[in-house]
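Risk register update: the risk of archive-format incompatibility is retired. Evidence:
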Amino acid sequence: MTPITRVIDAFVAQLAAISTANGHATDIAHIETEAIQINLRSETPLPLLHVRRLTSNVDARAGRGTRKESISLQIEAYLDLKTHERAGQDALLNDLYNAIYPESQVLLDGLAVTITTGEAELDDAELGSRILPIYLPVTITYTRTR
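Archived output:
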């Protein structure tokens, strides 16, 4: 398994820890990492997270014998409006930030990483009136030995 795959898997494991049993406000029903698109149906269990890979970048000039790599992901979170309303959307966004930015240094697959998030989008009229979305771009950067 490549370092990028291991880093993404470790990142998804952090997201999978979002549950009320772990002190979060939200219990995630499912995390999808393989599908390019999610087909939300009335029977789809929510809240659901969809983690998509967007881009990958390597900077070979990081230093002797090392290189800096970064991957850009998109977290798409979907909640049922009837169950959660806007306060639930705010709570899940807070849970996502708490999982992405824990109190200790972030180590994914043993590599110290820098994680940055972009601006979260919180509406999508095309989804209709049943679903509350969160679209959160994430960039993970780390240096590894070649």
